[in-house]
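Our consortium's second objective concerns turning raw sequence data into structural hypotheses that experimental partners can test. To show how far this objective has progressed, the report includes one record in full. It was chosen at random from the queue rather than selected for favorable results. The single chain below, 307 residues long, was entered without modification.
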Amino acid sequence: MLSEGKRHYRRKCIIKLLILLFTQPTIYISLILDYAIIFMKKILTVFYPTVTPIHVTTFAIQFARQNSCVIHAVYLSEEDESGNLNYSFPNDLSITQDFSGTENISQINSQLIEDNIKIFKKECEHNGVTFRIEKNTTIKQLIDETMDSNLIIADSESNFIEQILPKIHCPAFITSTTELPQKVALMYDNNLSSKLAIETYISLFPDLANLPTWLFSINPDEEDEMEMKLYFKEKLQPRFSNLMLQIATGNTKNEFKNFLDQLSAPALAVMGAFGRSAFSNFFKPSLARTALKEKNISLFVAHDKKF
């Protein structure tokens, strides 16, 4: 039971809110919306300042609508201490730099940034999605912000992907196509990380449970294969309507790439966190980001469970 002092304080707060409602309704509504956003699920969309890929925006909006999320659109700083974040030739200015000058390039890029933000705002407003814009964000600030986010969405062509994936604190969806996935590959290596990724994927994307889905593993030993089949039958089959089991043997790198090549439709690869998954070890410069370079493959990586 509340004390008399607390009841009195609550009554005063209610009276103040009612006064604000009738005297300054615009401020009242803004205040209520700000408090509501605090309790909404939060997804980050990450963009290089001069490039806002439409497939990233489209997927973020669809996910936000289905899950009552607020989108925090993060536009990275052009000059970041972590290194070069540029796409290759985000505009044609690099070709004519000798003629236009650095100052002119900066002015044109500033206009590109504002134009991209306007497009993003228009898409969100058209779809009735709540959003926030953050500009000039560093990689470090972005990684810190993932601590209280439910999902981060980025373009597979972004050069900053390899920098952020090992360090972020929430699941990541790295998309490479304007089409939503039509097939899903659950990469399984019989450790906690891969199982956590699968469970997080199921929780975040229940609407994808009807897609053709493979539980895939390479060179499991006898004990791991038995456990995989049990996991497939008892844990996963009841939750998917079109689930298949596939086990490959041979050169791990080649089998992994061959399997991805077989997924001809736009597909999604689900795998565990970097450094804690056998598959995640492939996403190093030595393999040239095998899945990310495949135009029909998007990637879902889970670091911890947020939903």
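The partners drew two points from this record. The first helix runs from residue 4 to 23. The domain at 177-302 is CATH 3.40.50.12370 (Rossmann fold). Both points have been shared with the crystallography group to help prioritize constructs.
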